[in-house]
């Protein structure tokens, strides 16, 4: 795999080819990755995969017209042809008054702090197989498990470089490790499935396989024999596994493109109170070893931590340069993109900061509640905020889990849910989007 400097030079060479082809402006991305993985089921190796990918993406402009092309070749000899093809496409494209690169005055040097995203340790297939086997064995050893969907382990490294005709050229190297297990409990006609998984930048931070397998089994066994409940109004407690989805609905509604298109239920919410006092939603791209950490965004703008919700108040949209121009604001450093695509805004490491009460206190906050551990389907209207999703979890009475429940639907409106939700104190930073246990005092529940 190339060095960071070599990858940045390749991206810069492609930008230079675009300029020679006649482009008024251009940016280019280079993506190089390799990964290995193995899965086992019932003690036997089920699948082994190894992949290497190389991708080059070029976005160029002819005034306010633009085109994007991609290639799998890293050979600079092919760059002039790629640039000429893109320029010919751009000349046929309609004009877009908001198109263009990020303002060069806003660009940083891309260096930023050391985020420690690259782990030189790369387990071989034998080590991956051993981890997957250990995870599955640990899961199958738990009483009540009757079958296995398997366990898998994987590792990989990637290198992404970005260069612009305004002088930015940087690269970022990162690594990832992952482990998962899924098993079955119960008998035919009443089977339940669940899983556990963990991902990390460094192998040393990955959960032990015994822990992953045991957690998958315990979650599955606990779901056996779900109880039918009455439809009605319940307090809903979102387990951290699913509470993070609420943040996904929030960020989708505050992206600049959604606001510019007027397709968001939070269209007029900037600067207003959406959550209770004390609630904070933070985006932190500079978290050391974070799964979504980055020093610069997909347009070369420097990244910085930002409280999107501060003391319950919405403080900012998430805007790339194009949507920022539409809205008449500055871009926020949240542009993301695939190598062969155009920028679009989105969060980095997003988290709902913890509240004062423990998970146990939230469980006991209402005489009757449902602890939701799984959500099914989409069921969210982005324009109105109406929320209706299939769910499974556990019935809670007076703070005690009394029975599993399944095949229910929970419904409400995201504005009401945001306004009344209470975060627990049990936040753990394990994913790209993290939340503690969350209590919503009242939602409608329909039982199948």
TrEMBL record:
Residue span, Metalloprotease TldD/E N-terminal domain? 27-90
In this chain the Metalloprotease TldD/E central domain maps to: 120-223
List residues of the Metalloprotease TldD/E C-terminal domain. 231-446
Q: Which InterPro entries match?
A: Metalloprtase-TldD/E_C, Metalloprtase-TldD/E_cen_dom, Metalloprtase-TldD/E_N, PmbA, TldD/PmbA_N, TldD/PmbA_sf
User: SUPFAM superfamilies under this entry?
Assistant: Putative modulator of DNA gyrase, PmbA/TldD
Query: Gene3D superfamilies under this entry?
Result: PmbA/TldD superfamily
A Pfam family hit: PmbA_TldD_3rd
Specify the domain of life of the species encoding this protein: Bacteria
Q: Which family does it belong to?
A: Belongs to the peptidase U62 family.
Q: What is this protein called?
A: Modulator protein
